[in-house]
Amino acid sequence: MDEPKVTGTKPKMSTTRKILLMLGFLSTLAVIALITVAVTQNQPLPKNLKYGIVLDAGSSHTNLYVYEWPAEKENDTGVVQQVEVCKVEGPGISGYSQTTEKAGPSLEHCLQQAEDVIPLKQHQETPVYLGATAGMRLLRLENKDAADKVLSSVEKTLRSAPFNFQGARIISGQEEGAYGWITINYLLGNFKQSGWKKFLHSLKSVSETSGALDLGGASTQITFVPLEISSESPQNLLYFRLYGKDYQVYTHSFLCYGKDQALQQKLARDLQITKNSRLSDPCFHQGYQRTINISNFFKNPCTSIEKKQFPFSQLYIEGEGNYEKCRRNIQDLFNKTNCPYSSCSFNGIYLPPLQGDFGAFSAFYFVMNFLNLTSDVPFTLDEVASAVQKFCALPWHEVKLQYHQIKEKYLSEYCFSGAYILSLLENGYEFTTENWQRIHFLGKIGSSDAGWTLGYMLNLTNMIPAEEPPARPLSYGSYVGLMVLCSLVLVSVILLAWLLFHKPKCLQKGIV
Ligand SMILES: Nc1ncnc2c1ncn2[C@@H]1O[C@H](COP(=O)(O)OP(=O)(O)O)[C@@H](O)[C@H]1O
Ligand SMILES: [Ca+2]
């Protein structure tokens, strides 16, 4: 039999095959175009940054903070971060009560630093706020006129800076507590969860926030969400709606219970029972000496109720370095005798049962950090107490030798401050061995200092919305990834379909 002749001419392509091939080619082209358009069209725009400045005019000194955030993400949580901090030279603004006109100019150096950090073309639109805390609250009580003049002086300086001046005022203790709480929960990402975290939280009815403990020089604040809300003391309750959730927050600020004023209060009480101008003080190291001028001592609203006449004008303090005695001495500052509510902290102030974790910052952190008590694994209450006891027992000359680089004012008071922190937390707020480790001493969260300033700015610039802002269900990366994946699946399906229904000759049996 004759074999079929293999001719030299190629087999002609059928018209359907040609159309199918064309279609396959065109759909591949369409998919490529689709991906290209998706990638280019949805590319994030170049970062447009915004800035804000807050000055924390504390009792001991003023700090200037510069914050930065991407303009298009303004209402997202956790996007604002601190990019600069500048410590103003000299005392806090309340320290200018005798030379009020110098309060403003003291801020100039730090304002210049802010000018250097923020791009020139954005100076005019950058808001600047100054909030003064307990030092100015005390000055206002002692001498209202001087407090007003200090504020006018700082306002004048801030208005002459190239930024958008938004106000210089004394904030209330309640605000200070609330904004500190907002800051740490914003930075810890507790207000708005994404992905799995959100799903898990929606299973639990409550969203967990962290309490805030702030220790300053002149006041201290405690703020947290209690388990149950009681209307016993409405002045201690605040209501927030943030990112679509309601928060009922307890807060209290104790004026005169910052660590510097607490020491003044303690000395004023000690003075009542001294027979002569010498005072042996268990809260200072053995060998340490300090002289106090009595005539100025009782001008302060934190000590004025103890005012009386003394037959001497100077008090000579000599350190004793005895931690246990110091704790007993300090304990007298917390009056636990009468409580008109179901539960109190001290001085008849309402305190609901403590709840959850606490972030303790400012001087809580500075002191604990100096005593090496701020590691990631929290120390027990006993470990902290014995570390403070050991430190207090060191003679002054040894302390000075060992820590020669630290300012003498701070160094001489770490023993008192350590004991005071333990008294405030243990006797004042009644933290126990069980819940002590729920206190986390923190200086910074990410690049931002823990403190009230960030919360203050977020609030005043309306950057924390009451309702959750509408968000894209997918991030940019996931969107592009999904587009690519879908397109690849589409191409493969078209190819497969073509191969299955119109088997090209080359794939037919026997030809290969
Ligand atoms: N490095 C440090 N070591 C110890 N204490 C510090 C350190 N830095 C700041 N402080 C103290 O922290 C406290 C800060 O308080 P401040 O914010 O000025 O007052 P307030 O908040 O009461 O208005 C002051 O007592 C200050 O002396
Ligand atoms: Ca402060």
Automatic annotation (TrEMBL):
Its cofactor is Ca(2+); Mg(2+). Its main location: membrane. Its EC number is 3.6.1.5. It is found in: Membrane, Caveola; Membrane. It is a multi-pass membrane protein. The active site is at 176 (proton acceptor). It comes from the Eukaryota. Belongs to the GDA1/CD39 NTPase family. This is Ectonucleoside triphosphate diphosphohydrolase 1.
